[in-house]
Amino acid sequence: MENLALLKLLHGLAGVLLLVALFALAGFCWRSRRVAAPPTDAAAEKGLAAEAEPTTEAEDAEAVEATEEAQAAEATEVDVPGRSSPWPALCAILLLLCLVGLPVSGWWLAHLAGWPLGQPWLLGSSLLFLPGSLCGLWLASRVVGGKPGVRLGLGLALVGLLCFAASLGLMVVKPL
């Protein structure tokens, strides 16, 4: 009986780590977005005023410096060439390990508990695990490859999270 309790604990921990890795990959997608702030009315009026009046070299240098500072503030770690973060790759590896380990530990749990594999909640959770896994792997490959695409990445994360949450719900409730 101790083996069953330990295996349940490890299976639950792997499920939580899977969701954490998927949330982290979604976060990396969100961070990679490019947001261009629209010019404010004051800035537009200043630009019109600057066109009407001749500017000095010092004002031009200040404007260039302000533009460079604004561009540097918008840059993220993903945009800096030569400096890539290891976190997306580590999250992808964690996701892959959980995706491989969960079906094995789930089958082992069902075997130790004596549940037949033909029960509807086991079949349903297995069927939900497949599209969730595919979405998670696709998301991980896009994030690690450096082309996350915010809309597609967040869509993949949402579908994966919904599939895994529904699978988790079936496993917790165990409707017969």
UniProtKB/TrEMBL annotation:
<feature type="transmembrane region" description="Helical">
    <location>
        <begin position="89"/>
        <end position="109"/>
    </location>
</feature>
<dbReference type="Pfam" id="PF10027">
    <property type="entry name" value="DUF2269"/>
</dbReference>
<keyword id="KW-1133">Transmembrane helix</keyword>
<feature type="transmembrane region" description="Helical">
    <location>
        <begin position="12"/>
        <end position="30"/>
    </location>
</feature>
<feature type="transmembrane region" description="Helical">
    <location>
        <begin position="121"/>
        <end position="140"/>
    </location>
</feature>
<feature type="transmembrane region" description="Helical">
    <location>
        <begin position="152"/>
        <end position="173"/>
    </location>
</feature>
<protein>
    <submittedName>
        <fullName>Predicted integral membrane protein</fullName>
    </submittedName>
</protein>
<dbReference type="InterPro" id="IPR018729">
    <property type="entry name" value="DUF2269_transmembrane"/>
</dbReference>
<keyword id="KW-0812">Transmembrane</keyword>
<keyword id="KW-0472">Membrane</keyword>
